[in-house]
């Protein structure tokens, strides 16, 4: 699994299809997203987006990704009355359909779990706007949006298919943004452009429970121990083994939520020889014992 896929998969974001319909009259909806993110994909017509004192038009093929908690509005025109998104279906039932719809769009919300998120997400802007004209005709983003549009127009679009397609779209949007926004400053955007760092990160994410040492990790990617340590310090400002510990502890926290899982089983699953050694590492990182975390999670 590549690094971006691993980060998105481990984030635990759960998607929820909010709307997938056409609107035939003036409309405006507010999306309260303080603790979530999401997509708006315009498949027909146009509308406006408004947040943080900014307002701009969205047209067919445009994609707006809200990457961080950000309450925002979508509306048919700047003077349209705005209501809560929960009234979407009520408004749809009372609209007339004698003419072509003003807008057809798909909105997907990503619920972000109540836990520390990967630092990569902190480097994303609060929103990413992708204009249809800026996406090459052959790009995978166009393929994904076309499939979403076709699924909607089929008349019996599957929620499951649409959810899977929007997960694919999430990956493509972030990957495209990374390719267009190189960074000369230390951080995760830079990490995606350093071959040695990204190979080391992918190795750790692929098999976090392996008996990694700085030496074995460096040998695995064809670099010296000092070279790997220096690259991590320059790019991510964190030692490789400390990052490995964080990956393991994040996995352990997820395992805590499963039933019939003992502390010993969790320790072995994330690469520790005993519950004692795991507990010491856990408390050193989070300042609380895993036993207390277990009780709180239960």
UniProtKB/TrEMBL annotation:
Organism lineage: Bacteria, Pseudomonadati, Spirochaetota, Spirochaetia, Leptospirales
SUPFAM superfamilies in the record: Homeodomain-like, Regulatory protein AraC
Transcription regulation in keyword set: yes
InterPro entries named among the record's database cross-references: AraC_lig (IPR032783), AraC_XylS_family_regulators (IPR050204), Homeodomain-like_sf (IPR009057), HTH-like (IPR037923), HTH_AraC (IPR018060)
Top-level taxon of the source organism: Bacteria
Keyword tags: DNA-binding, Transcription, Transcription regulation
Pfam family, one: HTH_18
Annotated HTH araC/xylS-type domain residues: 195-296
Entry GO MF terms: DNA-binding transcription factor activity; sequence-specific DNA binding
This protein's name: AraC family transcriptional regulator
